[in-house]
# Entry
Amino acid sequence: MTNTPNIHSVEDARIIARRRLPWMVFDYIDGAAGSETGAKRDRAALEAFTLEPRILRRIETVSLSKPVFGQRAERPFGISPMGMCNLAHPKADRALARLAAKYNVPLGVSTMSSTPLETLLKWSEGNAWFQLYFSGSGETSFKLAHRAQEAGYKTLVLTVDVPVLGRRPRELRHGFKMPFRIGPRQFIDFALHPRWSIQTLLQGAPKIANAQMEGYAFERTERRSLADWDTLKRLRELWKGQLVVKGVLNVEDALTLKAGGVDALQISNHGARQLESSPSPFDRLPLIREAVGPKFPIFFDSGIRSGEDILKCLTQGADFVFLGRALSYGSAADGPRGLNTVWNILSEELRGAMVMTGLSRLD
Ligand SMILES: Cc1cc2nc3c(=O)[nH]c(=O)nc-3n(C[C@H](O)[C@H](O)[C@H](O)COP(=O)(O)O)c2cc1C
# Structure
């Protein structure tokens, strides 16, 4: 597949995505909590960090591969779980899963995914990790974890930074709801973006696919604040495979998780979509790395927009990084081709940054 000709950076893809998507959908993907100072802080922390150029290192070949949970991944980055990816493009889920299969990298499958978790595991050729939200009294969440285990998932990612859904004014202004409520306002928005509307309607409006399950009633706005350390303990007992906890920013929490037997933690502020005033995950990365020691697996996401950003996270102590919006911009800008283009750009930027800083490998 050739690259999309007019996309040369993640920002290029974002600009095209903004034109193509209905405003409501673009703002769901692009938006953040409150007045979005947290999103700016995530970027500012990454932008302020520099990489040291090194010279005359005679580098012949560069390898971007890195092991994750003992498996060789062809890239040091994977796909962060995102709800309703097919809103960006009707083929987004499939294209993301194909990338995961091709590069042997983790595909984060959200509780709120637009394709059933079983299908995504198949499409990704076993490279999918299931992301769980705890909600209500937890009964249905445990059922969902059980279902993922039955389906053959080996890795479970428990997201803990949504005890309540963040207030995102851009979503609220458009009346964004899943499933959609189409009033006059949304109707005009869709009518003004006919290419997206026709493509999407031809495939049938995207749904929260995992909710089509007996005894499972997931409401996006349902209370999720009742999880506690005991919940984690129960989940640890139930889940035989690797357990990752996503949404960690506090050193003491990180140490408690390590002591509680989780296999990895993911430093993240949910792309600044939750607590607007949270610290930037990038600032917390070296502190948490120092606290948990050099061997404990740390994953990272939030605010990554380039291959250089990826290298910065790896040099500051992350074992593996995950991308969210950057990939959705690619899907929205030009479907599977746009997604592949963004993936190739990130890979080339990372490769270039490695050579210029004197690195030929990452492990
Ligand atoms: C549209 C969208 C939907 C998301 N849905 C989920 C989700 O269902 N579960 C989850 O754990 N994180 C979710 N996230 C957060 C991402 O996994 C990730 O933490 C975040 O996007 C990283 O920041 P970035 O977008 O700046 O890369 C979502 C993010 C976006 C942009």
